[in-house]
Amino acid sequence: MLIVPEREIADLMTREAAFDAVEKVFAAMASGDAYNFPVVREAIGHEDALYGFKGGFDRAGLTLGLKAGGYWPNNLDKRGIINHQSTVFLFDPDTGMVKAMVGGNLLTALRTAAASSVSIRHLARKDARVIGMIGAGHQARFQLRAALEQRDFEKVIGWNFHPEMLPNLQEVAEAAGLPFEAVELDGMREADVIVSITSSFDAILGADQVSPGTHVACMGTDTKGKKEVDPQLLVRADVFTDEVAQSVSIGEAQHAVGRGLISEADVAQLGAVINGSHAGRSSDDQITLFDGTGVGLQDLAVAAAVVDLAVERGIAIEVDF
Ligand code: NAD
C-alpha cells in the first residue's frame, strides 16, 4: 500500500492537475462510466463531530475508493488543528486490495475549486471580465485563485456576511495583480461570473441581483437546508450540476425543486457539456448556474492523480499490508 501524507500534498498537487482530474471524472459520470455511492454522514455524538463517507467507482479511470472524514468543530480551539479532517482510501478494482491512503484536507479544497473552475471554463461567457465572490472563508480563497485562471478577469468584487473576512479575497486578487472592491449585493450585477461559497442557510443573492449572461457557481450548499441564492434564480437560469441526485436533495436546487419551481429534468450534468452531448450556454444573455454539491468521485480523482505524482517523484511511502 502507498501512503501520501497530508504534509506532501501542497508540493505535489497543482491546480492544473486537479482541474484535469475533475473535468475527466465529470465527463465519465455523464457518460455512465463512473458513479457515486450513497453518502453516509452522521453526527457521532462525540466532540459535536459530523463524520461520513463519500465513495464511488470510475470504470473509465479504474478508480475505486472512498473519502472518510468530516467536521470536528472544536479542533482549532482545543488542539490547534483544522476543523475539516479527511483521508482518501483507494482500492484496486481488480482485487479489492487497498492501494493507497492519501491525506484529503488540501485535496478537498483543490477539488472543490476545480469544480467551479470547470464550470466557468465550459459555461461562462468568453468575454467575462468581472468576477464576484460571495463568501470569504477558507474555501473562498481557493475558489478565487482557481477561477481567475479561467478567463481574462480584470477586477474582483466581493461580499461577505462577515465583512471583516473580505481581506482574504483582497489578498488573492492583489496577488494575481487585480483590483478588489467590496460591494453590496446589488453591486453583484456588475459581475460576469459569480462564485458563492458560504455556510449560509438563507438565500443571500437575489434573483434580480444577477445580470443577463452571468455564470453563477453555487459551491457552498452541500447539505439539506443550506441555501445561498433565491430559488427564483434557478427559474431564470439554465441549471447544471455535478450530480443531479445530490443537486436536488442536498444542493442549491433542493429548494427550487422542493417548491415545484423547476423539476429534476431541468437540471443538467456539467459532464454532458464536457462530453459535447449538451450544448451548454445557449446565448450571451442566458444566465447559467452550476450547483456544485461535491461528489466522492472528485476526491478519488484528485487522490489518484496525487498518488501518480508521488510515485513519479519517489515521495510515496510504501508499506506491506
Ligand atoms: P469557513 O468557515 O472558512 O467560511 C464560511 C463562510 O460562510 C464565510 O464566508 C462566512 O462569512 C460565511 N457565513 C457563515 N455564516 C453565514 C451566514 N449565516 N450567512 C451567510 N454567510 C455565512 O468555511 P469554508 O471551509 O470556506 O466552507 C464554506 C462552505 O463550503 C461550507 O458550507 C462547506 O460545507 C462548503 N463546502 C462545499 C464543498 C463542495 O464540494 N460543494 C466542499 C467543501 C466545502
Automatic annotation (TrEMBL):
Gene3D superfamilies: NAD(P)-binding Rossmann-like Domain, ornithine cyclodeaminase, domain 1. Pfam families: OCD_Mu_crystall (PF02423). GO terms for cellular component: cytoplasm. It comes from the Bacteria. PANTHER family: KETIMINE REDUCTASE MU-CRYSTALLIN (PTHR13812:SF19). This is Ornithine cyclodeaminase. The lineage of its organism: Bacteria, Pseudomonadati, Pseudomonadota, Alphaproteobacteria, Rhodobacterales.
